[in-house]
Design brief:
Layout: H1 3-6, E1 17-22, H2 30-42, E2 48-53, H3 60-64, H4 72-78, H5 84-87, E3 92-93, E4 99-101, H6 115-128, E5 131-136, H7 142-150, E6 153-158, H8 162-177, E7 184-189, H9 199-206, E8 212-214, H10 218-227, H11 231-234, H12 239-252, H13 268-276
Parallel strand pairs: 1-5, 1-6, 2-4, 2-5, 6-7, 7-8
Antiparallel strand pairs: 3-4
The structure holds adenosine-5'-diphosphate and magnesium ion (MG).
């Protein structure tokens, strides 16, 4: 077997993955986690594309300080004539190597996107990338369910607020009824925030094990969002960055993708230094 025909062999190790960030309630940190996770994965040389699946009010571009030229609205307009290679022209490029399929520019365009188009777009993007990372709007809209069904892994994000936990519990029941529970990991974002509910209580409240913990860090996160630089790039030593990098390394551990799609590894700090010059 030569390296040229290696790409035609599909094993667990070489299958590209779709990772979806979902939540029952808005404002719990999906977008923050999506962009930082994507940059952490891309820094190891994996070709990584974010789909901004928050079709009405997507803010992935804001979090990455990118001005979208083309969006998913342009893709669906041309979808039947596009092959996976041509689709790359519709993506925005971030200096970290992450590519972005942006959300529509106006909320009223969101309803024009159908589940069938989501499936076609994901299939074509998977041919060109090792990881698709999807940032959803909160809740269980039809389009969100399409992404959740396509997902290999679902990160269901909550914080310690009562409303978030109550709705997460309800959402878990629905996802269970949809046979999606196997793919779910809970991320408790701001897990050490001031709250009557503590991180250690969440396991029993949600009836879920293996909870992932992300610390509260208002200063780092809000600055990062405002300047449009994910904190894993310029604050890699912070605990919050470490936790995200650990989850990222769990995702790509033991994965091997066809060589032609591997990008050069990039140090997170190196990227930041170049940006400042
Ligand atoms: N770990 C964290 N520590 C402190 N603030 C956070 C953290 N995660 C998110 N935030 C803040 O919470 C707000 C909502 O985050 P966002 O990612 O936009 O949520 P969502 O995408 O789920 O609506 C943002 O203002 C962000 O700065
Ligand atoms: Mg968001």
């Amino acid at each position: 077997m030569t390296i040229d025909n290696f790409e035609y062999i599909t094993t667990e190790e070489t299958k590209s993955e779709i990772i979806v960030f979902a939540s029952a309630k808005g404002g719990v940190g999906k977008t923050v986690l999506t962009v930082n996770m994507a940059v952490a994965i891309a820094s190891k040389g994996f070709s990584t594309c974010i789909i901004d699946g928050n079709f009405q009010f997507g803010d992935v571009n804001l979090a990455l300080n990118i001005e979208p030229k083309l969006t998913i609205s342009d893709v669906i307009h041309d979808v039947n004539s596009l092959d996976s290679n041509m689709l790359l022209n519709y993506l925005q490029n971030h200096d970290s190597g992450v590519k972005i399929l942006s959300a529509p520019l106006k909320p009223e365009y969101a309803d024009l996107i159908t589940s069938t188009e989501i499936k076609v777009i994901c299939k074509k993007l998977l041919e060109q990338h090792d990881y698709l990372i999807v940032d959803l709007s909160s809740g269980l809209s039809e389009n969100n369910i399409s992404f959740l069904e396509l997902a290999d892994k679902i990160f269901l994000v909550t914080d310690l607020e009562m409303a978030a936990l109550k709705n997460t519990k309800i959402m878990l029941k629905t996802l269970n009824a949809l046979n999606l529970s196997e793919k779910i990991r809970i991320i408790v974002n701001r897990g050490d925030m001031e709250s009557v509910i503590k991180f250690k209580d969440v396991k029993d409240i949600l009836g879920m094990d293996n909870l992932l913990f992300i610390p509260n860090n208002f200063k780092v996160v809000s600055k990062s969002f405002n300047i449009g630089i994910p904190f894993v790039i310029n604050k890699p030593k912070e605990k919050i960055s470490n936790e995200i990098i650990n989850i990222a390394s769990e995702i790509y551990r033991n994965k091997y993708f066809p060589r032609h799609r591997r990008r050069k590894k990039q140090s997170l700090m190196g990227f930041f230094k170049r940006k400042r010059n």
